[in-house]
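Hi R.,

Here's the chain you asked about this morning:
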Amino acid sequence: MLNKYYDTIIISILWVSAIIGIVFSFLQNTDILIQNYMGYGLLSAVTILKFTNPKLEKILLSVLLLIGSFNVIQFTQSTITTTFSWHPMNITTFSIGIQPLSFSLLIFLLITKFNVIAPILFQFFAADPKIEKERQNAVINKRYDELQNETDASLEEMITNKEKYQIEYVKAAEKIIYERNKKITYEQNPTRSL
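And here is the predicted structure, written out as tokens:
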């Protein structure tokens, strides 16, 4: 159930936090900052997208939580912000805030949708398929040259027991056996074309 309705749960928690934050801002007479307005606007966009374009909604929700985690946007005034600062010689050069609400919801999202997120991350960080195929073909050609002097029996053994050998050796062995069989067929019947 969590896996199916994770986005609804996250959006609901964010709206409840935003509404509570707005109420407390009016009761305590505090200002609502630009980060809050950006958070409310993006939260409204995510809510609308939930009903109009669910796929885009899930992507935008992930981005929303990520940038909210680093305190670029806020959903409520009452959110506790943890700030890490570095002050060499009393000069502020580095400061980053982490919003526990957004960060916790981001972790919740990652846990509930790991089976969806992992392939996306793998695809993002994986090598280009064309380059990988070219690399594999280059290795197969190298193995092909290495295996030219092997007997048919040893090549057949590689093909039969392919789990014991690298895939490039097996493919090279298959190519050599195919070419040798094709050559034998031609030598037996030279009128047939290759």
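One quick note: The first helix runs from residue 2 to 28.

Cheers,
M.
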